[in-house]
Amino acid sequence: MTSFGEVVLAMLAGAVVAAIGTPAGVSGAVFLLPVQISVLGVTGPAVSATNLLFNIVSTPLSLRRLSRRPAVDWSRLGPLIAVGVPAAVAGALARVTVLADPGRFRLLVAAVLLPLGLRLLWRSRRPRPAPAPIAAGAPARPGRVTLAALGAVAAAVGGVLGIGGGSLLAPALVAMFRHPTSQAATLALTITLTTSVAGLAAYTFFDAAGIGTAPAAPYWDVGLALGLGGLVGGLVGAALQHRIDERFLVAVLGTLSMVTAVSYLARG
């Protein structure tokens, strides 16, 4: 049973991560994994399920804000959801079986945090580039197979880690297809919310049916506290976005990513 103090700590953690990550344009979900494991004492596959609950609570407000921005090509959303939902369920199944071992899971988290930290530190050393004009007047449009493959991989990894598929999909859309950041973010958040619901349902079912390693169901109180904290922190971060040096925040997140990844690799 989670104590009241741990619930308060979870809310504070969600708020701090969102407050730093929002103005830096970085998803906070991945940074909550080490917080859950090392600070809040969440164990087993429940770590991933609890993170998905955080996504479900904290994502809708950001999605509503972004949906007011320039129009998104929603025709791309159908294929992404079609492959993303079963891929997220497959990721959850892998988490409760072959990736249930804490050591393997820490290595997987490190494998995500290490390149993320390097990318953030590199980004913190460079000034924000001016938007480059696009000669053709529109972003490159990925084919259905390419888009489906990207969505499936992102959703599966997101289901394993509990970070949703969008945080991995958005950088690919921007880097590979020159998607405007705001449109990529809207698609990514929609996929994150969809795959998080599917993944959470899968983890809850696996736990109830005794499939794989327990506990697989989320720590509901911790996940809700993280999500509520994330809502508040996201609003604070958005309000402070133009008052704090983005590169400083990115450097902080990059350093935390690197330190956590190295410590997990050292533990094996």
UniProtKB/TrEMBL annotation:
UniProt keyword annotations, A-Z: Cell membrane, Membrane, Transmembrane, Transmembrane helix
Q: Which cellular component, as a GO term, is one annotated location?
A: plasma membrane
Where in or outside the cell is it found? Answer: Cell membrane; Membrane
Q: Which residues cross the membrane?
A: 38-57, 77-98, 104-122, 143-164, 184-206, 218-242, 248-266
State the membrane topology: Multi-pass membrane protein
InterPro entries with a match to the protein in the record: TM_pro_TauE-like, TSUP/Inactive_protease-like
* PANTHER family from the UniProt entry: MEMBRANE TRANSPORTER PROTEIN MJ0441-RELATED, MEMBRANE TRANSPORTER PROTEIN-RELATED
Family stated for the protein in its record: Belongs to the 4-toluene sulfonate uptake permease (TSUP) (TC 2.A.102) family.
Spell out the protein name for this chain: Probable membrane transporter protein
